[in-house]
């Protein structure tokens, strides 16, 4: 390690290396001290600008420090708005619930109760699994290969990745792993396979309390399930008396173009989990949506000190009002998604790679973790923050803010193109033409 890198890694004071736990990870991929951020740009302590194609792992779909959310939050804080209220009724919560009902539930004809869990996605998943087990009186949960649902033990049991699972340090029980769509290639219908196993009294799969699935697997390599496959899974869940749970924590809040990532498929999940971009500006905030007939919790049966973050209620309400009052945001995401597909598609084709994902969560499968890691490291050198995804970290994954302007979007995509060229040493037509 060079002296310069060491200094950057340690920040100005060396405090990170001195007392922060080794568990940190993103700071290893992006060894820089950051101070400010606006829109799709993050600023280093030295003033260097970085384009953000990570967006807090899809927690910053509306960009950093949206001015309207920022203003509403500042106003709320300086006027002594309640910061912490356990799960008591507050004006901030009322404002969010009214906006969610008016702008999200009613227009989609959705009938759900909103359960505010602890503030991370894993909390929302834990609540969903606990409730499904309580409703059905069963313990087994079916989750999928390459699925990622969080790091607490219940959610971790449903997560596929071996490295993450080992960190649990205890047997992770109560989950049957089923193959996600396409896991054995296009010829094998994994939904039919699951159905056959469940139908067969000797299939070895215990009657499930729930089937838990991500419509687009974010951490597991940007595997986008088709509507037809999800519909089959939903039907299997209903047929076998299991709750159908969609984990929309990473793919939701506009990431694929609509507020929920599965809207176009006509699904009717029993439970939906949301977190990440729900607060609008990166504040911790999670939600478990429950069909009213399943809302059988006893008061405080699933508790927690930080359920319902009042500051997040304020910013989330502004996010809903600003971006989801009409379809203009969705249309702009669709346009950007098509552009992303064209540009990534051209790079993928040049190197014989394939495209993964859907909407504004697409990436290139380089088939090799080292290659994808080197490409992301090269991007960082050139001023772009971007990460890998997949079982072998083999996918270069674009997750930029959905509000990014087209010039900056293209600038970031140019950096990706140049990084592929630098690492794979093939001439890029764009660079050659310049
Ligand atoms: C689909 C999905 N579910 C759950 C989680 C866990 O969320 P959190 O990290 O906020 O606990 C994640 C995080 O990446 C996720 O992508």
UniProtKB/TrEMBL annotation:
Its cofactor is pyridoxal 5'-phosphate. Keywords: Aminotransferase, Pyridoxal phosphate, Transferase. GO terms for molecular function: diaminobutyrate-2-oxoglutarate transaminase activity; diaminobutyrate-pyruvate transaminase activity; pyridoxal phosphate binding. Pathway: Amine and polyamine biosynthesis; ectoine biosynthesis; L-ectoine from L-aspartate 4-semialdehyde: step 1/3. Coiled coil: none annotated. It holds the Pfam family Aminotran_3. One of its GO terms (biological process) is ectoine biosynthetic process. Its EC number is 2.6.1.76. Belongs to the class-III pyridoxal-phosphate-dependent aminotransferase family. This is Diaminobutyrate--2-oxoglutarate transaminase. It comes from Pelagibacterium lentulum. The lineage of its organism: Bacteria, Pseudomonadati, Pseudomonadota, Alphaproteobacteria, Hyphomicrobiales.
